[in-house]
Here is the input.
Amino acid sequence: MPELPEVETIKNDLKSNVIRKKIVSVDLGKPRIVKNRGSEFKKQLVGNEFIDISRIGKLLIISLKRGGLLLLVHLKMTGQLIYCHQGKYVAGGHSLPKLGSSLPNKYSHVIFKFTDNSKLFFNDLRQFGYLQLIKRGDLKKVTNNYGIEPLQFNFKPERLAEIFKKRTAPVKSLLLNQKLIAGIGNIYADEVLFAAGVLPDRQAKSLSNKEVKKIFVASQKIIALAIKHRGTTFNDYVDADGNVGSFVKFLKVYGRQGKTCFRCGATVKKTKVAGRGTHFCPECQK
DNA sequence: CTTTCTGTTAGAAA
DNA sequence: ATTTCTAACAGAAA
Here is the structure.
């Protein structure tokens, strides 16, 4: 689940819950999840506080009060960041544990405990995600690997056209390339291309200005809508306030292979493009 | 049982 | 320089 809208949701939820709480302990169940030495990681974090949380693409950036450090958190495919206070869960990842189930579970690889006895769990079934402490001064090296975001003020159709120009790769693989455009993952790439009426395996350089513009508009619309609906996709997530976020009901092609296209009635197909499962309507998308 | 698939991406190979 | 493929891992589905 964690693409830009999901990470944005997690960031906002965490901001209203863990900021300025003192960390009293850090448990490392699976030390390799943390890219730093375990002893150094604990030493820097215990007694410290999270003072701000931001995001670039799908990467969370947590500012620490002391030490001039930043904590980077990437959830990759199955990572979760779940805050638990007095039995209530807030924020998430690809799916939250069922309500009533308890944490930690067997996938809780890093656990932060705060002075008010609340906890922040980093869970990850496949263990692709990671946490990493870096010096503030090294942030630039990290952000250099990220391209423009769909909702960034200076993202324009011309910019997208520039990215597509001269490239022979399928348009979908460019939408997924974080160095070019940050935040779009497999679900939203398919949804954006459906909304734009463009086949995922079209060579980027073959797209007309009109098609580029449609992809531009669709990317902004869909990412904004997904954020509005808390980006929730395949889960039964309910947050502490009882709000259900479910972007899954807006999905037009993702996971709908074999079903009827909402727009034209043709059968939605699934193939592989750029090594990823790819869903599209062969009638609506050209 | 084995094989294939899965929301990511760094890094190698082509 | 760009594009494609694979590995990292665990578990569900076929």
User: Anything to note?
Assistant: Residues 1-3, 6, 58, 74-79, 94, 126, 128-129, 176, 178, 185-187, 233-234, 254, 276-277 of chain A lie near DNA strand B (CB under 10 Å from a C1'). Chain A has two domains: 4-143, 157-280. The longest helix of chain A spans residues 209-228. Confidence is low (pLDDT under 50) at residues 235-244 of chain A.
